[in-house]
Design goal:
- This protein has about 150 residues and is an alpha+beta fold.
- The chain folds into two domains: about 45 residues, no CATH class; about 90 residues, no CATH class.
- The protein has six helices and six strands; from the N terminus they run αβααββαβαββα.
- The strands form two sheets. A three-stranded antiparallel beta sheet has the order 1-3-2, with helices on both faces. A three-stranded mixed beta sheet has the order 4-5-6.
- The longest helix is centred in the last third of the chain and has 10 residues.
- It is elongated, with a radius of gyration of 15 Å.
- It starts with a helix and ends in an 8-residue tail after the last helix.
Length: about 150
């Protein structure tokens, strides 16, 4: 079976609780691993490898993946904007959360501005970020703050 950490890495650094349970890991065991810092509990139903970039974890906490300028930085095309996080979420997304923790997005998120990119279709890319091509297209049409929360 291997370690839960290895399984999460094999799934691209991010895994759902369901995928890990299906692989044979007990939910209590996953909580213990997270408490001891072996894996990261992103939000209910999601875990990450400790090697995953903090911006990716923050985007997942919101409820999506890195988008636009944040995805371009993830792909190495530019420097990250430390106070702005661009997140791609499905058009039907609900229960968006703060990038810093379990708070609801309607509550103040500290110093970070979140720009939400609502998508009508599943974005190309992986569990961490939209594809480079999609990030470029988003950056061309993005007006920072237009869809920010």
């Amino acid at each position: 079976m291997g370690s839960a950490e290895e399984r999460i890495r094999a799934l691209g650094g991010i895994a759902t609780t369901g995928e890990l349970i299906e692989a044979g890991y007990n939910p209590q065991y996953l909580r213990v691993l997270a408490e001891f810092g072996r894996i990261v509990r992103i939000r209910k139903g999601w875990y990450a490898s400790t090697e995953v970039d903090q911006a990716v974890i923050q985007a997942r906490r919101v409820g999506g993946t890195l988008a636009c300028m944040s995805a371009l930085a993830h792909h190495g095309w530019c420097e990250p904007e430390p106070s702005v996080l661009h997140v791609s979420v499905p058009r039907s997304a609900s229960r968006l959360r703060s990038p810093e923790g379990p708070r609801d997005m309607r509550e103040p998120a500290g110093s970070m501005q979140v720009v939400v990119h609502w998508s009508r279709r599943a974005p190309s890319g992986d569990r961490q970020a939209v594809s480079l091509g999609e990030a470029i297209a988003q950056a061309r049409s993005c007006t920072r703050g237009r869809d920010s929360l």
